[in-house]
Write a structure and sequence with these properties.
single chain, alpha/beta, Arc Repressor Mutant, subunit A, Rossmann fold, 9 strands, elongated
């Protein structure tokens, strides 16, 4: 489909235009694919079997001796969410999913070996080749970035001066915070490879003067969450860990946050979605965590996740649902906190 894009180039597969020449009486109705094959630089045979497969799944239709894209076909090529999902499925998941059974049985990301010998995908993100790396970040950012506009006011209503971004990824949340509040200072805590990506982005934005970097591996139980921050932020981070690991990380956060501070957790819970299709997508994303990412985590049911928060000695002060595409923001504080 990528090579048969409806981009307006003559002869390529595209939605029909009014006034297109009609079939003469007696002319065969069977559509012919040579124009599409020439434009895509593919053999006629390969083009024909793809287009006929597209007929079966409703991506194209036959009309007046030509193939035309259906609405489904247009969405597959043009809709940003569909593209993010399809690219992630093809580039990141397709090969590794053959090892899903092994991953389920062993609790290890058995499919990750198609990319490299790492314990988790996060260790290898900076080394993934293109387009795998681009598709991974494209999927991750599409969903998290859409929630930033609605979460920023919720985080900054308490006017934090120092914010710790755990799992800072490429630095997009840090950039949003620094632009939102000219007085806040942000520290990013993540694996060294991820911090290099974030530093590059924040340097390009001219914001490095209010940024600090704290390289760390939260899977190491000896890793300490640094104290003295008014806010600790974790966006789509804790779903990368097992329940026991979530509790351990949150206990370290609880020990580090002062009484006036708050811990903000942004996650997409499959049982908090408005539509069944959204729940289905999140449930299927859990299989990526099983086979590729780490072998132990998932997109959680909210009750399972909230039990981890409680077990870590935190009190949930507020829950904000339906942020961005599918997210919930949990505002947490240590149980002894009253501020």
């Amino acid at each position: 489909m990528d090579r048969l894009r409806p981009d307006g180039v003559p002869g390529r597969l595209r939605p029909a235009r009014p006034g297109h020449p009609r079939r003469a009486r007696g002319q065969p109705r069977r559509p012919q694919p040579p124009e599409a094959a020439d434009a895509a630089q593919l053999p006629i045979y390969g083009t024909r079997v793809l287009l006929e497969a597209g007929l079966g799944i409703g991506v194209v239709k036959e009309s007046e001796g030509r193939y035309q894209l259906t609405k489904i076909g247009v969405f597959l090529l043009r809709d940003p969410m569909t593209r993010a999902n399809m690219d992630f499925t093809r580039d990141v998941n397709y090969l590794g999913m053959a090892s899903l059974g092994e991953a389920v049985a062993t609790g290890t990301p058995a499919g990750l070996k198609v990319f490299g010998e790492w314990r988790t995908v996060y260790e290898g993100l900076a080394q993934l080749p293109e387009p795998i790396r681009r598709s991974w970040f494209g999927f991750d950012h599409f969903y998290s970035d859409g929630a930033f506009a609605s979460t920023l006011p919720l985080v900054f209503r308490r006017k934090p001066r120092r914010l710790l971004d755990i799992g800072g990824n490429t630095g997009k949340w840090a950039r949003a915070c620094l632009r939102h509040d000219p007085e806040v200072e942000v520290t990013l805590m993540d694996l060294p490879g991820q911090l290099r990506n974030a530093e590059e982005l924040l340097r390009g934005a001219g914001l490095l003067d209010r940024v600090r970097f704290h390289p760390a591996d939260l899977l190491d139980p000896a890793t300490v969450v640094p104290p003295g921050f008014d806010a600790i932020w974790m966006s789509q981070f804790l779903d990368c860990f097992s329940e026991a690991e979530i509790v351990a990380i949150l206990r370290r956060c609880a020990a580090a946050i002062p009484e006036h501070g708050r811990i903000y957790i942004l996650e997409a819970f499959w049982d908090q979605q408005r539509f069944r299709a959204a729940s289905f997508c999140l449930q299927m994303t859990s299989l990526y965590f099983t086979a590729i990412a780490n072998g132990t985590s998932q997109m959680y049911r909210s009750t399972t996740f909230l039990a981890c928060v409680e077990a870590a000695g935190l009190e949930i002060e507020a829950q904000h649902h339906e942020l961005g595409m599918s997210h919930t923001l949990l505002v947490c504080k240590p149980r002894s906190s009253t501020g």
